Amino acid sequence: MIPRFEDFEPLLSEEQIKARTRELGRAISRDLAPASDLVVVGVLKGSLVFMADLIRSLPPDVTCDFLRLSSYEGGTESTGSVRFDFDLTQPIAGKNVLIVEDIVDTGLTMSFLLDALRVRKPRELRICALLDKPARRKREVPVHYKGFTIEDRFVIGYGLDLEGRFRNLPYIAALTHEAQARLRAEADAARERSKQQ
Asked: Based on CB atoms within 10 Å of each CB, which residue in 38, 63, 78, 140 is the most buried?
């Protein structure tokens, strides 16, 4: 059961996101100086929009890199299994590394990534997440810089997607409570039908 665009409602406005991103940029610039030692690592694909805005709030001599992990395989639920799709292109030993993520929910993906990057001996390894969803946490991870803490709702927009769509929204929208209940009921009914067959 895949939600429709009409099943979502605005949660965070473009103006709220921009203002908070500037605040995060100031804090990161202060805490992780000098900028020439800072490697900003975007976790693709979801962090792309947030990272693009965030780095414009950082000093000009930071470097950027990307990696991609997979834990969602369509739909609205994480599989819980994490894998690298592709890795960094530069060494991070002795550098201050800022991982930029769209959302931290279960913590499984971020825990995997922290373990994988720690062995590369960065000086500092910190996380900046646009959204933190602690209600879904299965593994605790330190989110050093967080944009917003949200309740347990599926969200789209500003880089977050539903099967590859809606990343380009300039705001964040959340699945309505009514739609979430309807989709759960439909999924439960489908499971019940499959048991009877």
From this structure: 38
pTM score:
0.88
- Closest by CA to 130, choosing from 14, 43, 50, is 50
CA-CA-CA-CA torsion sign (134, 131, 96, 40): positive
Total tally of structural domains belonging to the chain:
1
Domain ranges, residue 28 = 5-196
* Total Cβ atoms within 10 A of residue 151: 11
Q: Could you tell me the CA-to-CA distances from 90 to 96, 100, 121, 167 in Å, in that order?
A: 13, 16, 13, 27
Q: Which of 34, 51, 33 is nearest to 42 (CA)?
A: 51
End-to-end CA, the chain: 19
- Looking at residue 20, its amino acid is R
Q: Residue 138's domain is classified under what CATH number?
A: 3.40.50.2020
pLDDT digits (tens, 9 = 90+) for 69-88: 886 555 445 556 777 888 99
The catalytic site residues sit at 105
Q: Which of 116, 83, 72 is nearest to 97 (CA)?
A: 116
Residue whose C-alpha is closest to residue 156's, from 147, 167, 145? 167
